[in-house]
Amino acid sequence: MSSSHPPTPRSNPSLMPSLSLIIVGVVVIIAGALGLTLLVPQILPPQASTQAQQVDQLFTFLLFFGGVIFILVEGLILVSVIRFRARPGDLSDGPPIHGNTMLELVWTAVPAVLVAVLAILSYVVWVNTRAVVPNEMTVGATAARFAWTFNYEVSQDTLPTTLNFSDLKPEVQTDLTDEDGVVHFSNPKLYTWVDQPIVMEMQSQDVNHAFWVPAMRVKQDVLPGRTTEIRFTPTEAGNYRIVCAELCGSGHGAMAGEVGRDGELLGAWLIVYATEEEYLANFFDDAATAVLVPPDDPALLGRQILASGAYPCATCHTLDDQGWTGNIGPNLNGIGDRAAERAQTTGDADGAAYIEHSLRHPGDFLVPGFGNLMPQFNPDQGQPNYMPQNDLEAIVAYLLTQTANPSN
Amino acid sequence: MAAVTAPTLPGAAIEQPKRLRVSDYLRWSVDHKIIGVQYMATALFFFIFGGALAMLIRWELLTPAIDLMADGQAYNSLFSIHGTVMIFLWIIPMMAGFANYLVPLMLGAKDMAFPWLNAFAFWLIPPAGIMMILGYFVGQTEAGWTSYPPLSTLFSGDGQTLWALSLHLLGVSSILGAINFIVTIRNMRPAGMGYFQMPLFVWAMLATSIIIVMATPFLAGALTLLILDRVAGTAFFNPAQGGDVLLWQNIFWFYSHPAVYIMVLPAFGIISELLSVHSRKPVFGYRAIALSSMAIALVGFTVWAHHMFTSLTPELRIPFMITSMIIAVPTGIKVFSWLGTIWGGKIHFTSAMLFALGFLSMFVIGGISGVMLGSVPFDIHVHDTYFVVSHLHFVLFGGSVLAVYGAIYHWFPKITGRMLDERLGKIHFWITYPAFFLTFFPMHLAGMLGMPRRVAQYAPEFQTLNVFISIAAFVLGISTFILLYNMVHSLFYGEKAGANPWRALTLEWATSSPPPSTNFIGDPVPFPNPYGYGTEAAYNYVESQNKKYGTVNPSDYEPVEKIGPLSAGTE
């Protein structure tokens, strides 16, 4: 074993791949990469916006070139381990080759050109997906832990056809004729119709969130202290889940739209109607009527306010009358019975005072087993989580009617 | 019997090394080999811990509702600690462990440049790790390993403060270690070893250490602001009082993107060693691989904001896309050079080589998905989804962890003097490799189809995919124990390794296994090219080592049972 010569190699396979291997390789690589691109519709969500069409096209390119590299590298590994495996007992070395300048230049230059092409394609798509288009509908969005609220407005020009300006209450008429001339209302769902471009103007009440509609291929972080923007134009009618994509705390996953037990859509969904008429008939007219013609009974008004989703209660609380199923905060079934009882331990005058206290200062008294997670709803317009006193009183009146619920 | 051996004179007979006991590893030592093992053992402990957390994550995700964990916060705490532990207490210290053990040996040096500092850097790690984990009991951190404010400042529990303090300590440890490596590599190379005669693992550690020294202070800065916001009432990140939430994201990623290369460049170094030795062929394009590490280190500092494509000012996104795409080029050079290395070699399917090939085949997927993520419009869709979770695990598990596994099989004989069981090693590979792929590849689909990351409750249509992923993850988790069993068993019953079981040319093999406390008897003479396989000179060099340190096991690539009685000892 102390000979000064290396053991003679048995047989050295040629380093140059044969022409047939190269041809087979090129065919496999091109065919394989093209085959991969056929999968694109299956591995992406429904393609429902003009942005989605362009992003998917770009992804098809990325997948093709990625597939070429993938099959090339894995193929070379596979061919190497088969062709160049050491036969048993072969203790010889491979040939002392240290490099090849030409080859190294090629595999530096080709990927460089490839990524340059991909960067240019990406840039073009980027510019197109962000382009400002005429007739955009601006929708304000507010993200809070753990719900979305989308803000709509109604003006004298956009009154539902069933309403006459002269029939409205005087204070509503004032709202519609003052400087900004609109009445605001909110909804946890985002409504639009096919081919209506949307620009979202988004704000956060607490931490970072991200607005994402997978079917639209758009995503934008919503950051406290800034207003961020995103544009998209739906092309297909349907219901699309809105998802929060930036970690925002314990209810992060619950911020996405959900499907209820009976197939009803709960929480954050993008509803795209086929036409503007459908949009008006199914959402806008009813929602606008509700704010323009508020019921006189405060309990009914409170029920309507909560049902509108103007406040993000549904994510965390359960209340059968509203169809809420959240479990991050206390169950509100039967709250009308418990409020008076709780008022005695907290020193509030009565049940109504206790609920009001709990909305204005939720951290003062915590129901055992629950953390201090609820936003504080403030009485002044400039403050975050603004809840006007009228709304508050209506909500308290409504919650006091929620008594002796058998499912509690 | 005398407890201490007499000092050996240069050229004297082989020293009978003092047999190290377990207790030697539990106390302060300035020997780089003991410190290296201390790093690795500590890191393996945290790997098991972080892995157990991953199993809990996958258990929770078997159903679309929250059921295993008490609430979303407990789940958030789970993945926050999983991510932080795996990065800062497993991969980084594990690589530091290998580097501590190997860099002085590869340079023919007797120790690191600053042995005391080396020990100090290690001993910062256990208390930091314990502090981070104890944070669970003072109020859960729930902001993820990236800890974006204001969630991490205004909402997360006090564990977040301990998390930040712990990272501070780990950062100091990292910087001290890196300074030590830079000085060692700069000043302690033996005569005849210029920079371009260094083993590529040493090159990788040089690049890594430069990144650490330049980037980690930024993490320290960000953490200091975070701690002040949490405990001193400042508002650096609180917009309500004039702060800015993006400030954290910018500073954090200015460190944390280079940190990806801190985790993966040493793995590149390991792979260059393993592929060359086990395919008996010189590294193809040595200079290109060495210099591409430096290029990656440099360009790596210009790409951080690609982690912020959905929060960054839109106008700034394109420049960061361009730099991010550029970094694919030096990475591609490495991959193709490695392919050139194995092409035409004599590939021996040792466990170490299997894991190196596993790395090569899986890391390329992480590279491809990385380019996809670099493309702004596509990233917008998959940002903060399971696509990213998949990508990062292909880079850090398919990359770093598979490389660490390969390194364990390759260098365990040097560290312990015993071979690992090759049969168990192959079983380990053939379970880990497919289980890894089946765990992480489907996550691409989950992300593209619409599943965000960091959620305990998800849309029911993703359940099938998640159950599949979880089952593969459980297999992956269990497969780790094959390696651990192999290590413990082989430590006592493994076949004797000899000085140079792989017939390698780098200097760590030019001494007994394990090396004596002075590393070498006399000054070792490096072979002019650390990867000069295939020449008669290289053959003779290994032969002359065998004469000095005892013959190598003659048929070391055969399964254990086929090997005859060992001819250990000197001739």
Structural descriptors:
heterodimer, A: 408 residues, alpha+beta, Immunoglobulin-like, Cytochrome Bc1 Complex, Chain D, domain 2, 3 domains, 3-stranded mixed beta sheet, 10 helices, 38% helix, elongated, B: 571 residues, mainly alpha, Cytochrome C Oxidase, Chain A, 17 helices, 63% helix
Q: What is the structure about, briefly put?
A:
Helix content of chain A is 38%, strand content 17%. With 408 residues, chain A is an alpha+beta fold.
Description:
The complex is a heterodimer of chains A (408) and B (571). By secondary structure, chain A is α+β, with helices and mostly antiparallel strands. Chain A has 3 domains: 19-85 and 101-130; 137-293, Immunoglobulin-like; 306-400, Cytochrome Bc1 Complex, Chain D, domain 2. Helices cover 38% and strands 17% of the residues of chain A. Chain A contains 10 helices and 15 strands. Chain A has a 5-stranded mixed sheet. Chain A has a 3-stranded mixed sheet with strand order 4-13-9. In chain A, strands 7-6-10 form a 3-stranded antiparallel sheet, with no helix packed on it. Chain A is elongated, with a radius of gyration of 31 Å. Chain B has helices at residues 32-60, 72-106, 115-123, 125-138, 151-155, 159-187, 200-231, 245-278, 286-299, 317-326, 328-342, 351-374, 376-382, 386-416, 422-449, 463-493, 536-549. The longest helix of chain B is centred in the first third of the chain and has 35 residues, at 72-106. Chain B is mainly α and 571 residues long.
